UniProtKB/TrEMBL annotation:
Official protein name in the record: 4-carboxymuconolactone decarboxylase
GO molecular function: peroxiredoxin activity
NCBIfam families: decarb_PcaC
Any Pfam family hit: CMD
Domain Carboxymuconolactone decarboxylase-like, chain residue ranges per copy: 35-117
Upper classification of the organism: Bacteria, Pseudomonadati, Pseudomonadota, Alphaproteobacteria, Hyphomicrobiales
Length: 136
């Protein structure tokens, strides 16, 4: 694999966690392997690996873009990632408020619903929003 792929995997693991990446890797097939490589090199090895903005800011942008474009299925994964990127619940709320004004209330409302559900799941599993990196 390329250096960009290896770097992408490192960043992906740091943001999404080893468990998520292991599940995704186990589900990969010969059919979707080229697509997974593209995502790993492009999204994780280029965009997320850039030091131009912080991971906190990148989380906020990603969540806002996902909501604005109606890509709701990705929102829970990126809410869980906030425990590693440092984006707070308040940061996420602010991002979704921007979505409401610039992309529409229904999209922001759905995104907030998913965020609330995901934060509740995280808290059931010991996540503490009032602690650094959500650790108990």
């Amino acid at each position: 694999m390329s250096q960009r792929y290896e770097s992408g995997m490192d960043v992906r693991r740091a943001v999404l966690g080893d468990d998520h990446v292991e599940r995704a890797e186990a589900a990969k097939t010969a059919f979707d392997e080229p697509f997974q490589t593209l995502i790993t090199e492009g999204a994780w090895g280029t965009v997320w690996a850039s030091d131009g903005i912080s991971d906190r800011e990148r989380s906020m942008l990603t969540l806002a873009l996902l909501a604005a474009l109606g890509n709701f299925e990705e929102i829970p994964m990126h809410i869980r990632a906030t425990a590693r990127t440092g984006a707070s619940k308040q940061d996420v709320l602010e991002a979704f408020q921007h979505v409401a004004i610039y992309a529409g209330v229904p999209r922001a409302n759905q995104a907030l619903k998913l965020a609330k559900e995901t934060y509740a799941e995280m808290e059931e599993n010991g996540y503490r929003a009032d602690r650094p990196n959500g650790r108990t």
